[in-house]
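Most newcomers find our protein records easier to grasp once they have seen one. To make this concrete, we reproduce a full record directly below:

===
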Amino acid sequence: MIEVAKKNLVIVESPAKANTIKKILGRNYEVTASYGHIRDLPKTKMGIDIENDFTPSYSTIKGKGEITKNLRALAKKSDKIYLAADPDREGEAIAWHIAHILKLDPKEKNRIEFNEITKNAIREAVKNPRTIDQDRVDAQQARRLLDRIVGYSISPYLWQLISSNTSAGRVQSVSLKLICDLEDEIKAFIPQKYWEVSGNFSDNIDLNLYKSGDDRGIKMWDEEKMEELKRSLEILPTFEVTSTEITKKTKKPPLPLKTSTLQQLASSYLGFSASKTMRVAQSLYEGLKIDGTQKGLITYMRTDSTRISEEAQGQAKEFILDKYGEKYIGKEKKKKTDDKKKIQDAHEAVRPTYIDLEPDNIEEYLNSDQFRLYKLIWERFIISQLAPMEYDQFTLISKYDKYQFRGIVNRVTFDGYYKVFKEEDEIKTADFPVIKEGDKLKLEKLNIKADETKPPKRFTESSLVRKLEADGIGRPSTYASIIETLKKREYVEFMGKSFVPTKLGYDVEKILNKYFPRILGVEFTSSMEDALDSIEEGEVKWTSVLEEFYTDFKKALDNFDKEVEKITNRRIESDVPCPVDGCTGKMLLKTGRFGKYLECEHFETCSGRIPLKTVEIDEQELEDGHIFINETVQKRERIKRGIPTDIVIKGVRYNLKKGRFGEYLESENYETDNKRLPLSSAVIGVLRDGSIEIDVEMIALKEKLLEMNEYFEEKDTDMKTEDGSMMTLKKGRYGEYLESENFAVDGIRIPLPASIKKMVKEGQLEEKDGVIIIKYLLDEIKAVEDKLIAEAGVCEKCGSKFEIKASRRGKFLACSNYPTCKNTRKILKDKETGELSVAPPAKKKAPAKKTATKKKAAAKKEEK
C-alpha cells in the first residue's frame, strides 16, 4: 500500500489571501482560510469572570462551526501547521484561538509572520516559524476585555435613559466627546475683527506689514493703532531698505504612508471613508490576479511606522536612477527614536511590493477604487524616496518711522521631489529683485483689508483621524471602526464632509461625561494605549492593567446605578397638551426603544404619544420634574408641515420643510407641480445655529441666501427638446442642470459642465426677456467633444466607440463598452493655445529585469 505524503497546512484569515499564498507555496502546501476570528466573547452576556482574575469565557462564533470542523479535519491530515494571520495583535489573537481549537502545543513553532505577500517574504517566513507571542495576545485580550467591560456595563443604563440604539465604548466615547467639545467651541465662538496690511511699492515690489512698533505680523488687532498707521502712511512715503538676505533652504519630501496618513490622504484626495480605505487596501494587500499571476500589491496596511526596508529602498533607487537620474535619489533617512514606543512601528510603512508595477500599467486588472488607492500609495512611496527640493530665499525688510514691511521671494535651485509632486503648501517662486540695503522704495499704494477671525473647522474623517493619532487615542487598526460606530449609532451626521454631533450624540456624551469623566478623558485613554503597549512588551501583566482600571470604574458605575434608579422612577410632566381630542390628561416624559417621547398619563385608555427625537430638554427642568417644551414641539410640527418663506418663484411661494437629508424648500403647489429646491450644507448650518430666526408664521430667508450667494431662481432657457419643450435651468443636490418643462412625460434632464455651472454662480450667463441664453455654449462644448471622439477613433482594445466622461481630475475618454472594457484615454490641453487633443494609447511597459540590475551592480564592483 502506497502511503500518501502529508501536506503542510497554512491557515490565514481570508480566501483572497489564501489564494495568493497558495500560488506562491505550490502543491506541497494546503492553504485555507478561517474567515477572521473563530472564537470570541459571547454576545448575550458579559462573558468575563471579573472576580476570578478577569477570566474570559470564549466560545465558537455563531456560523463558524463548519469552518472549525474543516480546520480540525485538515489539521489531522497535515504534517506541519503554520498559522499565518496578519502581523499585528489582532492577527496574533486569531492565531492563538486557532491553535486552541486545534489543540496545538504552545511551545511549537507554528506562527509565521510577513509584512508583504511576495514570493521572498512568504518563503522566508515559512523557513523561520516562531511560537505564538503570548504577550501580544494578552495585549489584544486586554483591549477586548476592557472594551467589553465598558460597553456591557454602561450601555444598559443608556438604554433606560436615552434609547436602545445607544451604546458606550471606551474609545468611541472619547472620539464623540472631541466632536461635541469642538461643536460647543464653534457655538461659543465670538468673531474678532482684524486688519491685514500690505503695500505696493516702486519697482513692482509687494510687501506685507512686518512690524508696527512692538507689534509683529501682517495683522493688526487694535483699531486705534490701525487708524494711526493709516494716517501715517496715507501720504505714501518713501521707505528705506534696512535688510536684504539670501538664505539657502531645503524642503524634504513627505514621509511614506502609515495607516493614519493613508486614511487622511484617501479622504482628502479620493473622497474615501476610513473604512472604505482599509477595505480597498486589504484587497490590494491580499492579492489580485495581474497578467495571469496572483500578486499582493502593497505591504500590510495597519502600521504606525514610516520605516522602509533596505530591499525596497534599493528598488526605489534603481527606479529613480533609471527615470530621473542619480541626483534625484534621496538620501537614507535616519529613523528618529522615541521614548514613547509604538509597537506597530516594528512594521514597515505602507508601500508597493513591486516597484516595477506602475499604476497605469496594471489599471486594467484593478477596479476603479483599487486603482486610485494603489496609485496614491505607489506615487507617495516614490515621492518619499526622492531628493529634497532646494531653493534660495530672499528676504527684504524696508522701514519708515516705526513701520516695517517685509517681503519673501523664493527661487528653486534644484527641483528634487517637486519634479513629480507639489504639495498644497507649494512655495511661491519669482525672480529676485535687484536691490540692496540703503535703497529707497516708494509706497505707491497702501492696502488695508478688514476681516474677522473664523471659528475652528469641524472635524472631517481626515482631520479626526489626525486628531486621534496626535492625542494617542486608539491605534491604526481602530480608527475606521471608531468612525463607523459613530455614524452607525447616529451620534454624528454630515454637514458637507464635516461631522456634526446629533442630539442623540450630545445626550450620550453629556451623560458619560457627567458620570464617567475619567473614561472620557483624552489623557486616560492615551495612557491606556501605552499600558497595552507595555503588556505587549512583557513589562506588565494584562490582568494588573484590568484590575487597576476596574477599581475606579466600579465606583463610578455603582454611583451611576443609583442615579439611574432615581431618574427612571421620577414622574416628569410636560406643558404639552394631549393631542387626542377630548383628553385632558398630562403628557409625561418616557424613554423607549427610539429615545425620549411624551405619553399621556391615561395611556391605558388614551393613545396620545409624541416623539421627542430632536427636542432639547433643560436639565434643571428635568431635575424639577416639569419640562416646558410645548413651543419647541409646536414649532417642530409646523416645520414638518412646512413654514412659508419669502421666496416666491414665478408667483409660487416655497415652504421650508425638513426631510431625511435635512431642510429643503418645497412649492406650495407641490402636489401638482412636484417642485422642490435643495439647500446647501452652509444654509442648513445657519438654519440650525440660529443665524436665521425661525418664525412659525413666515421665515425671511431670501436676504440671507442672497448674502451667502446661495439664492437660485429657476429660469427658462433657449434650449429645447426635440419635440419643442422648453428646457428650464434648475438646481439640485449636485448643482445646476437643465430639465424639460414636460419632464413628467418625457423624463429629459441634461447635466451641465463645470464651466457653465461656474458661469451660473457668477451671474455671467446672458438673459433676454427672462430667457437664459445657453444653447450656443452647449453647442460649442459638444462640437469640441465630437471632434475629440472622432480623433480618438475606436477603442484599440475592443473596437467600441469612445465617449466623454468626467472625473474629479477633469474630462477623459472612456470606452463605451464599460465595464467589459475599462480602456481610457487622456485629454491633453496645449499650454499656449488651450486647444484640446487626445493622448495616444498608453504603451504597456515591460517589467524591469532584475537580472540586468544585478549584472550592472557586479560590473560596478569589478570597476572598483
Summary: The CA atoms of residues 274 and 595 lie 29 Å apart. The first strand starts at residue 7 and ends at 12. DSSP finds 26 helices and 38 strands in the chain. Residues 134-161 form the longest helix (28 residues).
